[in-house]
Design brief:
The protein is mainly beta and 752 residues long. 11% of the residues lie in helices and 50% in strands.
Length: 752
C-alpha cells in the first residue's frame, strides 16, 4: 500500500512540474478534421495539452489554469485542481498537432493572416504523414501542386514614434559596422554615447562612459547572442529555455531543442534598467535587423518532430494553420517577428520553406537564401527512366515509394539494385551526370517586401550556384544582385570487395592430462570444411562536388525573374569577398589566381566585367573609403594585410598602399562586426593576434591615400573597440581598457 502511495505522489509531482511556468491556450477548431491551438490573453484561460488528428476522430485534453504576474521580469502559472478531461479516445492511426506553450509579457504579438496557400488546405499532408516514417518527403510530394503565387494580407504599419534620449545629449560615438548603412545588426558590444553595453554569456555589463565605471550588471537566465541599443531601450536576444511539447503520452514530454528569448529593457537610468518586454520565439535563431525603430527577428524550426506537426510560437501567439504560408516544399518553418520598439506591438509571420543560411535586408526588402542540391530534383525522373529495366517486384516497390513521396528511399533502393553489377552502375552514373549536369547546387532566393510591421511575400527565384558570403547579396534599386559559386557534380564508382571466409576452419582443442600432481596439456586441431559460393563485389556511387565557376545574377524584383547574368566571371574559383559600391560590384575570388574584379552594373540588365587586378594572397572584407578608394582586409603568406585600391578608373584598378603585419591575424577576416571605423579621423580599429597570441587592438590609418599602423593598444583578448568622444574602449572578456584617442595612452581600466 505504501509503495502505491509513493508511485501516486511521483505521478502527481511529475504532472505539476510539467505545467508550471508555461503560457496557456485555448483550442481552435480548423476546417474538416484539423484541429490546432493558438494563444489568447495571458490570464485565466484553458490549456490544450494535446490535439490528435485521425481520419475520423480527434482527442483533446484540457486543463484550466491561471497566470499570475509576479514582477516585470518573471511570471509563474498555477495549476488548478481541475481534472483533465478526455473528449474521446481512439486506437486508430493518429497524427498530432502539438502546441508549443510560451510566455510573453509587456508586448502584444499577433500572427498575420494570409489569403492563399496555407497549411489549412493540406489535410492530405497530415493524413499522408501519419502513415509514413518520412514526413519531409511526404510533404514534398503533397505540396507539388501548391506553387501558385500568394500574397500576405495588407497590414497598415504602426507609427514609429521618435523617443529622445533622457539625460545629457549623446556625444559622438562609433556604431556597429554593418552591411547596409542605417540598418543595425546584432553584436555583443553597443554604445549610445552615454554608456557602453557589453554582453558576455548570461551577463550584460553597462559601463558609464563619463565616469568610466561599471554602472550595472544585468543577469539574464540564458546565453545572450547579442544586443541592440535604440533610444532609451536595450534589446537582448538570448537563447531561450527548452520548450515542452505536451501531448497525451505515458512518456515524459519532449522538447524543442532551442528557442529565442527577446528581452527589452528601459535604460534611461543605466544604474537601474527596467525590463519592459519579454518575448519567446520557438526555433533556432537565424538573423535579425533593426531599422527605423522596428526590430526584425528571424527563427527557423522543424515543422515535424517525431511525425508530429508542431506549430510555431511567438510570445503569447501560436500560429493557426491559416497563418502558415506555404512558399515551397520544405520541412522547416521560417518565423519572422516585426516588433515596434516604441509601442511594443508586434506582428509575426510564419512560412514553410527550405532551411535558410543567408539573410539580407535593405530598407524595403528582406531576402532569405536557401542553398539546395540540384541532384534531388532529378530523383523521380531518374527512377522513371529505369523503371522498365527493373524486376517487376522492385519496379512496383519504387512506384509505391514515389506515390508516397519517398523519393530518397526509392533512390537508395535503385542504387542497391545497381550495386550488384558494374554495368548497371556505369549506366546509372552516365544517366545521373547527363540529367544533373552542372547543376550540382542552386540558391533559392526568397524575397519579402517590408514596411514597418507589414511583411509581404514577393516570391522566390532559383539562382544557379550557392551563396557563400554575406556580402554576395545586395539590392540595387529595383534589382537584386547575387554572386554565387557554381559547382559541378561528379559521380564516382567505388568497388567494395566482399571477403568470403575460407573453405575450411581449424578449431583448436586443448587436452588436459593429470598424473598425480602433474598436469600436462596438448593442443589438437579439428578441421571443419565449408561449402561457400564466392560473393561478387558491390559497386557504390558517391557524388563529389567540385568548383565550377563564379557567376553574378541580376534579379528583377518586380517580376522575380533573372533579368541578366554573367554565368562565368572566372572558372575554378571561390568567392572570398564581395561589396556593392554604388553601381559597381567588387568581387574577390581565390583558388588558383586571386583577382579583384570590378563589375559594372550601371545598366543592371547588361552587367559586364570592366576590370580586375591580380593579388597575392586574398581579401575577405572590402570597404568603400571614399568615392575612388576601396579598402581590403585579408591574408598574404601567413600574414595579415590591409590594402588600399584606387578604383576611380574601373578598367585600371591600382593598389596604392599596403600594410602587412607579419604573422598577424584578426577575427575581422570573417566577422565584419569586429571592425570599427572612425571616418572623421580616417582610421579603423580591430582586434589583432600575432603568432597566435592576442595582443590587443590595431589602430590603422588610411589618411592621405596611405595605409599605416598608428598603434597597437595593449589589451590582450580584446574582441571589440569602441570610440566615444576622445576615448577608445578596448573590450575584453574580463575588463575594459580605456585609452586616450589623442595620445593613445591608457587612462582607465574597468574590471568586469
Amino acid at each position: 500500500m505504501g509503495k502505491a502511495w509513493v508511485v501516486a505522489a511521483m505521478v502527481v509531482a511529475f504532472v505539476v512540474a510539467a505545467f508550471v511556468g508555461y503560457e496557456l491556450s485555448v483550442a481552435y477548431r480548423a476546417p474538416a478534421s484539423i484541429t490546432t491551438v493558438y494563444h489568447t490573453v495571458p490570464r485565466t484561460v484553458t490549456r490544450t495539452l494535446v490535439t490528435t488528428i485521425t481520419r475520423t476522430t480527434f482527442v483533446t485534453t484540457t486543463v484550466s489554469s491561471s497566470l499570475t504576474s509576479t514582477s516585470s521580469a518573471q511570471a509563474t502559472s498555477t495549476v488548478s485542481s481541475a481534472t483533465p478531461t478526455v473528449s474521446s479516445v481512439t486506437k486508430s492511426t493518429s497524427y498530432t498537432l502539438a502546441p508549443i506553450p510560451s510566455y510573453a509579457s509587456g508586448a502584444r504579438i499577433e500572427f498575420a493572416s494570409i489569403s492563399s496557400v496555407s497549411l489549412q488546405r493540406l489535410e492530405e499532408v497530415v493524413r499522408l504523414a501519419a502513415s509514413t516514417p518520412s514526413s519531409f518527403t511526404s510533404l514534398m510530394y503533397a505540396l507539388a501542386g501548391f506553387r501558385a503565387a500568394t500574397t500576405v494580407a495588407t497590414v497598415t504599419p504602426a507609427t514609429v514614434a521618435t523617443v529622445a534620449l533622457a539625460g545629457k545629449a549623446s556625444i559622438a560615438h562609433s556604431t556597429t559596422n554593418v552591411q547596409v548603412s542605417g540598418i543595425d545588426e546584432l553584436d555583443v558590444v553597443k554604445t549610445n554615447g552615454r554608456a557602453l553595453f557589453y554582453s558576455k554569456n548570461t551577463n550584460i555589463y553597462i559601463v558609464n562612459a563619463t565616469s568610466l565605471s561599471l554602472a550595472y550588471t544585468l543577469k539574464v537566465p540564458r546565453y545572450v547572442r547579442g544586443i541592440y541599443v535604440w533610444n532609451n531601450e536595450l534589446i537582448a536576444i538570448c537563447g531561450g529555455a527548452p520548450i515542452r511539447i505536451l501531448w497525451l503520452s505515458y512518456y515524459p514530454p519532449m522538447y524543442i531543442p532551442n528557442s529565442i528569448q527577446i528581452l527589452v529593457y528601459n535604460v534611461t537610468n543605466i544604474r537601474s534598467p527596467k525590463l519592459i518586454a519579454n518575448i519567446t520565439m520557438s526555433g533556432y535563431y537565424l538573423s535579425s535587423r533593426l531599422y527605423n525603430g522596428v526590430l526584425y527577428v528571424l527563427a527557423q524550426s522543424p515543422a515535424f518532430i517525431n511525425r508530429r506537426l508542431v506549430m510555431p510560437v511567438v510570445g503569447n501567439a501560436v500560429a493557426k494553420p491559416s497563418n502558415i504560408e506555404v512558399l515551397t516544399p520544405g520541412d522547416t518553418y521560417l518565423t519572422v517577428l516585426a516588433l515596434n520598439l516604441s509601442s511594443l506591438r508586434g506582428r509575426a509571420y510564419a512560412y514553410l520553406i527550405n532551411r535558410a543560411s543567408i539573410v539580407y535586408m535593405s530598407k524595403d526588402h528582406l531576402v532569405v537564401v536557401s542553398n539546395l542540391f540540384g541532384v534531388y530534383r532529378v530523383v523521380p525522373q531518374l527512377i522513371e527512366r529505369y523503371a522498365s529495366q527493373l524486376p517487376k517486384d522492385l519496379s512496383k516497390k519504387l512506384s509505391e515509394l514515389i506515390s508516397k513521396g519517398k523519393f530518397m528511399e526509392a533512390y537508395y533502393e535503385l542504387l542497391s539494385w545497381a550495386s550488384r553489377s558494374y554495368g548497371r552502375v556505369e549506366s546509372l552514373v552516365k544517366t545521373l551526370e547527363a540529367m544533373v549536369g552542372r547543376e550540382g547546387a542552386y540558391a533559392r532566393v526568397f524575397v519579402f517586401s517590408i514596411n514597418g510591421l507589414s511583411i509581404a511575400k514577393d516570391g522566390y527565384v532559383d539562382v544557379p550556384g550557392v551563396v557563400t558570403r554575406q556580402f554576395a547579396v545586395n539590392q540595387l534599386g529595383k534589382y537584386l544582385v547575387v554572386a554565387t559559386v557554381r559547382y559541378s557534380i561528379v559521380f564516382s564508382v567505388y568497388k567494395i570487395p566482399i571477403i568470403t571466409p575460407p573453405g575450411a576452419t581449424r578449431i583448436p582443442v586443448t587436452i588436459y592430462k593429470q598424473v598425480g600432481e602433474t598436469t600436462t596439456t596438448r593442443v589438437s586441431y579439428i578441421t571443419i570444411t565449408h561449402s561457400r559460393t564466392p560473393t561478387s563485389p558491390r559497386y557504390y556511387i558517391y557524388p563529389r562536388f567540385s568548383v565550377s565557376s563564379v557567376g553574378v545574377y541580376v534579379v528583377d524584383l518586380s517580376t522575380m525573374r533573372i533579368a541578366a547574368s554573367i554565368p562565368k566571371v572566372i572558372s575554378n574559383e571561390y568567392v572570398f569577398g564581395a561589396r556593392l559600391v554604388g553601381t559597381t560590384l567588387f568581387l574577390v575570388t581565390n583558388r588558383v589566381v586571386d583577382p579583384l574584379f570590378a563589375i559594372d552594373l550601371s545598366n543592371p540588365t547588361k552587367p559586364k566585367v570592366v576590370g580586375y587586378v591580380k593579388l597575392p594572397g586574398y581579401l575577405t572584407y572590402l570597404h568603400p573609403i571614399s568615392r575612388g578608394l576601396l579598402l581590403g582586409i585579408g591574408m598574404e603568406k601567413g600574414s595579415l594585410k590591409i590594402e588600399l585600391f584606387n578604383v576611380t578608373n574601373l578598367k585600371r584598378i591600382r593598389e596604392v598602399s599596403k600594410l602587412v603585419i607579419s604573422r598577424g591575424w584578426t577575427p575581422a577576416l570573417y566577422d565584419y562586426h569586429a571592425i570599427t571605423f572612425w571616418s572623421s579621423r580616417k582610421i579603423l580599429m580591430f582586434p589583432i593576434s600575432v603568432s597566435w597570441r592576442s595582443v590587443g587592438i590595431a589602430v590603422v590609418s588610411y589618411a592621405d591615400n596611405e595605409v599605416s599602423l598608428v598603434k597597437i593598444l595593449e589589451a590582450p583578448n580584446a574582441i571589440r573597440a569602441v570610440w566615444i568622444g576622445e576615448k577608445v574602449f578596448a573590450v575584453s572578456p574580463n575588463e575594459i581598457k580605456v585609452f586616450s584617442a589623442v595620445s593613445w595612452r591608457p587612462i582607465a581600466e574597468i574590471k568586469l
